[in-house]
């Protein structure tokens, strides 16, 4: 089986207030940062054929800006479950991705995305890359993994961290 790529991303900077937490929009800085993250992903050759995005407004808007910055036209799956998911539940959602998908982008919330990225990491990354992700996982943080296997078999310590980047405009 050919190697797959998995991008784990935390949504961009959101406004402090919204009608509800679920409906908090991105701040204008968040839109710019997410677009910068998208441009960086495109520069890394990331071209997703599947995307899982929390159904919250700020994650939907993060996807729009990332896709705009990267030049992607893919329609994502907006998943309500990702909004409240803990790391194990998020991993379960990823395991349901069709095997036809080879490059997957997941955009969600912290602490889940940070913990998910740490959980997947097999520890074989370049030391500098590994150290960069070991710190904070701020808004617009992006972890790019390679993974060999079926999505259904994705588990703890099964993916190699290839790159870590924080989108900033």
UniProtKB/TrEMBL annotation:
UniProt biased composition (Basic and acidic residues): 12-29
Highest taxon of source: Bacteria
One Pfam family, short name: His_Phos_1
Keyword terms of this UniProt record: Hydrolase
Database matches in SMART domains: PGAM
The keyword Hydrolase belongs to this UniProt entry's keyword annotation: yes
Keyword Cell wall biogenesis/degradation: no
Disordered: annotated segments: 9-29
Protein's name in the database: Histidine phosphatase family protein
Organism of origin: Nocardioides endophyticus
